[in-house]
Design brief:
Blueprint lengths: L13 E5 L3 E6 L9 E6 L7 H11 L1 H6 L2 E7 L3 H8 L15 E3 L4 H5 L3 E2 L2 E3 L5 E3 L4 E2 L1 E6 L5 E7 L7 H17 L18 H10 L1
Parallel strand pairs: 3-4, 4-5
Antiparallel strand pairs: 1-2, 1-5, 3-10, 6-9, 7-8, 10-11
Keywords: Cytoplasm, Disulfide bond, Oxidoreductase, Peroxidase, Redox-active center
Family: Belongs to the peroxiredoxin family. AhpC/Prx1 subfamily.
Protein name: Thioredoxin peroxidase
Length: about 210
């Protein structure tokens, strides 16, 4: 599994469904560089069981991300038509109607491969085309990307393990605290807590108070 933290997030252009139903053909995270932090999360498949719980959970906290100037973007290896169809179904019917953030269609699997979250046995032929012997879907990878396009946090869950959206918000808060204050965030840090300076004296002072 590749560690992308500290590196430029892979660049891509792909179809996506935005605003709950509008299909655009050339979606890219490059539009956010210099403007927004980005939470990019991958999920395995449309029309499944754990996945809609996650997509609805991110939508429920979307205002919290927006208050922090952070864009939420989802991605799976399904087609944009599949995303669109799933968005038309209500929550009671297993759908994700009401989700407004972009959902990328990684149908050629290259985005999932670039972020190293692609599940299954696959290889590339002599023309650089991905070839697979089984269904190719994405692990539950999540990447927090700063305004310069650098990955600052990543976590990858196995397929049956859903994520905690409040923890994602905590990591956004931690990153923005570090950027704004020049201090570091100790264990179990939450918004409103003090940070500490990255010196022996700073660590000693923090531990003495906590």
């Amino acid at each position: 599994m590749a560690v992308l933290v500290g590196k430029k997030a892979p660049s891509f252009t792909a179809p996506a469904v935005v605003n709950g139903g509008e299909v655009i053909e050339n979606f890219s995270l490059d539009q956010y560089i210099g403007k927004n932090h980005v939470v990019l999360f991958f999920y395995p498949k449309d029309f499944t069981f754990v996945c809609p719980s996650e997509l609805h959970a991110f939508q429920a906290k979307l205002e919290e991300f927006e208050k922090r100037g952070t864009k939420v973007v989802a991605c799976s290896t399904d087609t944009q038509e599949s995303h669109w169809g799933w968005l038309q179904l209500s929550k009671n019917d297993g759908g994700i109607k009401g989700v407004k953030y972009p959902i990328i269609a990684d149908t050629n699997k290259t985005i999932s491969d670039a972020f190293d979250v692609l599940v299954g046995e696959y290889d590339f032929d002599e023309f650089g085309r991905l070839t697979a012997s089984d269904d190719m879907i994405a692990y539950r990878g999540l990447f927090l990307i700063d305004k310069e396009g650098i990955v600052r946090h990543q976590v990858v869950n196995d397929l049956p393990l859903g994520r905690n959206v409040d923890e994602v918000i905590r990591m956004v808060d931690a990153l923005q605290f570090v950027e704004e204050n020049g201090e570091v965030c100790p264990a179990n840090w939450n918004a409103g807590d003090s940070g500490m300076t990255a010196t022996h004296e700073g660590v000693a002072d923090y531990l003495a108070k906590n």
